[in-house]
């Protein structure tokens, strides 16, 4: 059975994960009257920033599939309501002015149907603002797929893999018929400090990109898999003189105003 998300593990690099949300939020103009939805709100890291930006009087709702993450989000005090639900199935119950999603929609398939469906929930002049990692060709993510397929071919088929996030031009073509769209990518260079018990990049990915792989492995299999991944990361992301590791990470953003 797939385990729930771990808010403490996810928050370990909270400052690095929050920066893209703030960069996305900086490109969102003041939306019209209506509710604000933090779609895939996770532990609520973006909630206070949303509240500060749009002020009191705006109803902010967080939606996530993880009970543990929603419990953590509740402690932020930013949300009028927190809802356990699937973003792929969510339907607005009232006027929605802004759908804000930071690093969540990459987990959902068929963006060609999903993004227009979300945009259709917005009031006229409403905004769909999305950030998703597009790191899948980098060693940090490619190693996971390659090693899993080599070590456990009964569970991982590389021929069935599709990149969860498309190139930027695909989102522009997808969204331009729906309104005014701005699409961009940013390559962040994260400095990860030394950690006990593994490579810093593995500690960064273990709460996100590694989860689907570890969920399919037994404890002994996971130990073997992680050891191989750690060793490969040491070559791909060498340790700097001060003991840190520099970790380039690519993220895709778009802001659609309907």
Walk me through the topology.
Elements: H1 7-10, H2 14-25, E1 35-39, H3 47-54, E2 60-64, H4 67-74, E3 81-84, E4 96-102, H5 111-119, E5 122-133, H6 139-151, H7 168-175, E6 180-192, H8 200-205, H9 211-214, H10 219-236, E7 245-257
Parallel strand pairs: 1-2, 1-4, 2-3, 4-5
Antiparallel strand pairs: 5-7, 6-7
Summary?
The protein is about 35% helix and about 25% strand. It has helices at about 5-10, 15-25, 45-55, 65-75, 110-120, 140-150, 170-175, 200-205, 210-215, 220-235; strands at about 35-40, 60-65, 80-85, 95-100, 120-135, 180-190, 245-255.
Q: What does the model show?
A:
With 258 residues, the chain is of the alpha/beta class. It has a single domain, classed as Vaccinia Virus protein VP39 (Rossmann fold, 3-Layer(aba) Sandwich), CATH 3.40.50. It is built from 10 helices and 7 strands. Strands 3-2-1-4-5-7-6 form a 7-stranded mixed sheet. Helix 4 links the parallel strand 2 and strand 3. Helix 6 packs across helix 10. The longest helix is centred in the C-terminal third of the chain and has 18 residues.
Parts with pLDDT < 50 across at least 5 consecutive residues: none
Order of helices and strands: HHEHEHEEHEHHEHHHE
Number of strands: 7
Count the DSSP helices. 10
Assign the CATH class: Alpha Beta
Form type: globular
Distance between the termini: 40 Å
CATH architecture: 3-Layer(aba) Sandwich
What's the CATH H-level homologous superfamily? Answer: Vaccinia Virus protein VP39
Helix fraction bin: 25-40%
**For the CA atoms, what is the radius of gyration?**
19 Å
- Tell me the number of structural domains: 1
Q: What is the SS-derived class?
A: alpha/beta
